[in-house]
Amino acid sequence: MTALFHDIRYALRQLRKSPGFTAIALLTLALGIGANTAIFSVVNGVLLRPLPFHDPAKLVRVWHVPPAKSFPGITTFAVSAANYLDWQNQNHVFEQMAIYTYRGFTLTGSATPEQVDACAVSPEFFQTLSVQPMLGRVLLPEENQPARSNVVVLSHRLWQEHFGSNPDVVGHDITMNGQNFLVAGVMPPNFRFPDFAQMWTPMAWTDAQRAVRGEHHYLVIGRLKPGVDVAQAQAEMNTISSRLEQLYPADDKGWGAVVIPLHDDMVSDVRPAMLVLLGAVACVLLIACVNVANLILAKGFSRQKEIAIRTALGATSARVLRQVLTETVLLSLVGGALGLAYAPFGVRLIKAFLADKLPQSMDIGLDLKVLLFTAAVSLLTGILAGILPALRLACKNVSQT
Amino acid sequence: MTEAGQPLIQISDMTKVFYTDEIETHALSGVHLSVSKGEYVAMSGPSGCGKSTLLSIIGLLDTPTAGRYLLNDKPVENLDFGERARIRNQEIGFIFQSFNLIGDLTVYENVELPLTYRQRMPSAERKTRVMEALERVGMAHRVRHYPSQLSGGQQQRVAVARALGGKPSILLADEPTGNLDSRNGEAVMELLADLHRDGATICMVTHDPRFAKHAQREVHLFDGKVVAEEELKKLMAEVQA
Question: What is the ipTM of this complex?
Answer without folding.
Answer: 0.90
